[in-house]
Amino acid sequence: MANLKDIRERIKSVKSIQQMTGAVKMVAAAKMRKAQERMEQARPYADRLSGVIESLLPEVDRSLLPLLEVREVKRMAVVVITSDRGLAGSFNSSIIRRAEEVIGGFGMENVDLFCIGRKGRDYFRKRDYSIVEEQADFWNDLSFTHAIRLGKEIVSHFTCGSVDKVTVVFNWFKNLAVQELRAEDLLPLVYKEGEAKPIDRLYEPSKSEIVQSLVPRHVNIQVWRSLLESFASEQAARMVAMENATENAGELIKDLTLEFNKERQAAITKEMLEIVSGAEALAGT
């Protein structure tokens, strides 16, 4: 059984951890609000542009742009978006697990990885996956420039024929408590049969120029949206995880305090019994 000093040290240690988790929760909450605002601002534009592209695809000659070329998938690329830091519950582990499922269904030797975030990069690097691009330590300064840079790398890797398909694995921000895992195909651009119907349109300046302008922009916007969704999800997951950790620390402090009081009372009772026993012994002599 632990002595009073050990229990007191444990209480002190747990209180320090509780203060740390509470501080991390507050920082995550502030970042999450800003990230959520940016994400909600980007969603309407991304969805609208996606709808326009989907409605154009049935009428477009795919030879106009290499990004529209549908090839037999012999090799694919997977963009894995994780965080740079932990303390976010199962945020990173669930993304990595989902990415492994996508990779496992196609074969590790036939997949190139774009690792966004240190956690995913470190995990796949240790297991000798083929990583063609990695980015880390940029989340606090996240801007559209990062999406453009990543989009160019993805487009270049696809158009040069290195891969025949690109899939993005990330967390979609549903609400504060729920982040939805998604694996979405980014390239080539396709549409589901029956959903997009041809519409009589007048193209100005020309159909080819419109397609060549909108499609690369669409890729960049979808990458940007994925980064924003992932960053907001990360902060929400960290906020919830730290809140749970703070509450658990409080419960542990209560239990340790109760144990401390029991031990102290037992020590006092023992000392009193020793005093009484000694007094009785002296009285008997």
**Rg, nearest Å:** 29 Å
Mean pLDDT: 87
Spatial order of strands in the largest sheet: 3-2-1-4-5
Question: What is the CA–CA distance across the termini?
Answer: 36 Å
Overall strand count: 5
Write the layout of secondary structure elements.
Layout: H1 4-56, E1 76-81, H2 91-104, E2 111-116, H3 118-126, E3 130-135, H4 144-159, E4 165-173, E5 179-187, H5 207-284
Parallel strand pairs: 1-2, 1-4, 2-3
Antiparallel strand pairs: 4-5
Describe the structure in your own words:
By secondary structure, this protein is an alpha/beta fold. 60% of the residues lie in helices and 13% in strands. It has 5 helices and 5 strands; from the N terminus they run αβαβαβαββα. α1 (4-56) packs antiparallel against α5. The radius of gyration is 29 Å and the shape is elongated. The two termini are 36 Å apart.
Features of this protein?
Pyruvate Kinase, Chain: A, domain 1, 60% helix, five-stranded mixed β-sheet, 5 strands, 285 residues, alpha/beta, 5 helices, Helix Hairpins
Brief characterization of the structure:
It contains five helices and five strands.
